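#structure-requests
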Amino acid sequence: MKWFRRDQEDQHAGVVPLAGVSKSRGVPEPAPQILTAGGPALQRVGGDGDQVARMTTGAAPVILDITHQGGGHFVVDSLDGSLLSQSQLVYTDGPFACRSLVNADDRTVRALRVQADGPWMIEATALSSVLTLDGSARRPASDVLRYEGGPGIATLRYEGDPQSDDGGYFLVDTFRPDGDGFLDELANHVGPWRGEAPLPGPCLIYARADGPWSVSVQAMGPSTPS
């Protein structure tokens, strides 16, 4: 089962047992390309296998561009100053690419625990690298989008992960535009799903997903006097 642990304040650093996960015997396909708005990397770390990587970007919110080229398991956990797991950013198999948001909830990430079956790379970039949501967007996996409009209704759709026994996991949260604080949870579902949620105004939309998802926003428009 592939899933994301939302909070890890009461658990030690670790991962879900990988029982039943088999490694690919063939040459894995390349990870999908990550699309960003540009900007230099603040920190870059990579490896080929299991590693604990120190974060050197400080307490400011940053985006993590995460890629994996291996054919087997790939798990990334964010760790606090005591090296205890805060949350799970990635839990999947095979080639994978996604973007994650860290340091946006008053919990500074001091390190990343990576468990990988092959080569991987993580780049930290500023919030300016986030793509702006212009009406609608479709993303292949976990990603962060910037919404700059006024109050609107967000229609969210998760297509699911056909390679997962449970259909994959979909968690969507919103944060303040500068990344300084959590706002609301828009979705928290397992398997393919479609639904609506309110967006009160400008925010960062952070979706954690095993597979493709999309979002579109319909503006409320000016209120009508009674």
